[in-house]
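Figure S7 source data.
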Amino acid sequence: MEKEISQAVISRLPRYFRYLEELRLSGVERISSQELSKLMKVTASQIRQDFNNFGGFGQQGYGYNVEFLYQEIAKILGLDRKHNFIIIGAGNLGRALGNYLNFERRGFLFKGMFDQNPDLIGTTVRGTTVMPMEELEDFIRNNDIEIAVLTIPKTGAVSVADRLASCNIRGIWNFAHVDLNLPGTIQVENVHLSDSLMKLSYNLTE
Ligand code: NAI
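Tokens for the predicted NAI complex:
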């Protein structure tokens, strides 16, 4: 039976991935857990514990092979394959995300954008034309769309999410400030930028 990896470990993987990407780009071939620990300001034992969830990735004393570790973490995070995504809500946030090129580099391909505002239909974001909501289901089915990014107000988010569920979307990156109750087969990742800001505020207040 496969061991269940805790969400805490998974939430740390992207940071390891980013550091390894940097190391790899600067030509570093090997790194010990102590060196990685110093660089990332987490304990070496935390790093070893995290990596032990996946079999350890490297020989003790010899350090980790950066390229191997990078590729393995990419595989665990599903970054070794392409993910087609659409954005629903072509406002400020939706457009900003659509214009962000780095997602592509990580294998997230921006395939389409939708909005209910007739004034926005037909406008483009980085070469992608904003489509009307009536075309949502067909587009998802015909274009192998795996992820929908929700950048609409919370009022419409629940019913749009239900429509996404009915055409078997696999994941929702939810920026709308509402919790979505969807079948467990659909992965939802909620993002609230203001949570991070409130954390900063707390630390300023302390
Ligand atoms: P905006 O008003 O510029 O854009 C919203 C767009 O969604 C509009 O183009 C509107 O026509 C469209 N829309 C509204 N209801 C829709 C529906 N049912 N179906 C399809 N399209 C619909 O707003 P902005 O600044 O882009 O923010 C979008 C939402 O994201 C807001 O509700 C805001 O509260 C939220 N937000 C969340 C953040 C987070 O960290 N989670 C950060 C910033 C904004």
